[in-house]
Amino acid sequence: MASNKNITLEERELAISTIEKVGEQITEERIEYYVQLRRNTVKYQKEKLIREELDKEIEQNKEFAKKVLSYMKRSRSDRQIFVYARKHAETLIFIKENNIAVEYTPSIFGEAIFFLERLKTTTIHHLTAEDLAICIKDKKIDFLNAINQKEAEKKERTSKEKKIK
What pTM did the predictor assign? Predict the structure, then answer.
């Protein structure tokens, strides 16, 4: 049986709900039994695999997140890196699951975040993987143009600074 320490509040509530439905007496042993029963189901195992896959993707995408944050000129704290790596991983998983044909770079991802943050007046925390994937797919050309324009302006500024010196 599962230990009470390892039972989450959500699992406990689900178990109590199930116990009430079948008309049994609610005891700690019954709760543990129904939690273990749920954990052994295919659905729970799939959820666990998805969480593990996401954790693995997040770890692999930390370098990508650092590049996005550098491009966006935002703080590269561990927390920010984790948030951006998570959004990138969620977006990749969404693209893969929905067979969306799109590839992107850190700068395109950054432009999509800028665009959606302005459009929805929100932060990255509230953007969904679906929003990001569809935005990148629909506006990739616009983002590439914006990136090229920024690079051209940066080169122009640099050349003017050199002339002044």
Answer: 0.62
